[in-house]
Design brief:
about 325 residues, alpha/beta, 12 helices
Length: about 325
């Protein structure tokens, strides 16, 4: 099929593409230039003359969009479009699309995995076995760290979109009691009480809300202090929902029993990030890969290809 458009994929390495089938994208009538990563210094040259741009995390600001005089289509290989200047794109007549709903099974699975690891002290026991603690024990098992069941525990969910609803469904299957809260700044209802009203009752708090002016720094010193000392915090949403310094203090002081996070305010985090440098036994950190099952990444690229195909076909 003769190429009708010139296109560029700016950061394919963010998907570990060697595990995926790219046929849906590469079979489109586009003459592709594919790059693993693109730095700001390389961006202008790589998008010059392109009518189609696909990007995950490479920022397309007003200057870069205006400088790409041939540009007609931007495909964001993610749900959020904060990395592109959508106002400039729209005013320039450039179509932009994103990809939504691709990662729900992966993120939900990851969320429950984090909850289960916290409840069972899995990482602590695994470390004990690796260090010979079980082998040197006087009894047949190790019980030096608390082990809890999810059954009958109270889960507080903030954010009840597709992800929050799916987490609720799995939590109910584990026998948990689930409350969906109304986020601060919005009017509570009989079915969705105010977040602050139920925070102190929760055994687990799982965040699935969007990052906004209302939710930035939502989990702060005051709210962490309001939580039960036996409670756990899980964040697979956005790093800036949580005040990292306040979380560090709360974990060190035992204000909460533990936390598991897949996201941080700055990503990748700096080598001297205080939360990571503390190496706390009651903190689990995964590197923003809750979304990244092979199946999820394949769905993302397939949806992105379908978006572009629909645009190409008018």
């Amino acid at each position: 099929m003769k190429a009708e458009k010139r296109g560029v994929i700016l950061d394919l390495d963010t998907f570990k593409a060697d595990e995926l089938n790219l046929d849906a994208l590469l079979s489109l009538p586009v003459d592709w230039q594919v790059y693993g990563m693109t730095t700001p210094a390389e961006l202008e040259q790589r998008i010059h003359g392109c009518e189609v741009i696909l990007t995950n995390k490479v920022v397309l600001n007003r200057s870069s969009i205006k400088g790409a005089s041939c540009l007609e289509y931007i495909g964001v290989l993610a749900t959020g479009v904060n990395n592109i200047d959508i106002q400039t794109a729209a005013s320039s007549g450039i179509t932009y699309t994103n990809v939504a709903g691709y990662g729900t099974p992966s993120v939900v699975q990851h969320t429950l995995m984090l909850m289960l690891n916290l409840a069972t002290n899995f990482i602590g026991y695994q470390k004990s076995v690796g260090q010979g603690g079980w082998q040197a024990a006087d009894t047949f098992c190790l019980l030096d760290k608390p082990i809890n069941e999810l059954a009958d525990k109270h889960l507080l969910i903030l954010g009840h979109g597709e992800l929050g609803k799916a987490v609720e469904k799995l939590a109910l299957a584990f026998g948990m009691r689930v409350t969906v809260a109304t986020r601060p700044g919005r009017k509570p209802t009989a079915l969705r009480p105010a977040f602050d009203e139920v925070l102190a009752e929760a055994d687990f708090v799982s965040l699935h809300c969007l990052l906004s002016g209302e939710t930035e720094g939502l989990i702060n010193e005051q709210r962490l202090a309001a939580m039960k000392p036996t409670s756990f915090l899980v964040n697979t949403a956005r790093g800036a929902l949580v005040d990292e310094s306040a979380l560090l203090d709360a974990l060190q002081r035992g204000e909460i029993a533990g936390a598991a996070i897949d996201v941080m305010v700055t990503e990748p985090p700096s080598k001297d990030n205080e939360l990571l440098a503390a190496k706390l036994p009651n903190l689990i950190v995964t590197p923003h890969n809750a979304w990244a099952s092979i199946e999820s990444r394949q769905r993302l690229l397939n949806i992105a290809a379908r978006n572009l195909k629909n645009w190409l076909e008018g």
